[in-house]
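Memo to structure team: turn this sequence into structure tokens by end of day. - J.P.
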Amino acid sequence: MMRISFLSSFFACICVVGILATPPPASAFGLTGFGGKLGYLTPEDRDGTLAVGAHLEFEQHDSYLHFLPNVMYWQTGDLSDLSANADLYYHFAPEGQITPYLGAGLGINSFRDDRSNQSEAKLGLNVIGGLRIPAPAAHYFLEGRYTASDISQFALLGGITFHGWHGN
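Reply from structure team:
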């Protein structure tokens, strides 16, 4: 059952990436970066644990709005979660400046309980806030993230997004 949930989530991410990586018209979102994140996550009624994630970043030219398809993984004790997310965020200052951002999104959380050997996929609502810090050909970020789902989660994360071809 977990294999089906994992494969479904993985296939959905690949499809989204494939569709969104096609050359966009001038007014559409275009791929501008990729990166990863690492941090501390506290799932509801469980011990805190390490969380790791990877993302792509899409933005519309001269826009403060960004689309981030991403995956995150964590495990604590016998419980783990692999989530495929589609998040939007808005930053409040132009590119190249330190800026706060706020966002929200939806995710599919594939929970796995090794003790009972059961898996289930549940929809989650993500609420995101953070700080973007520019660097040459990249930006760093510090982020707080809350996911409302069957097992709600709060995470504090840090990460980097590389922008080699866009010049952000």
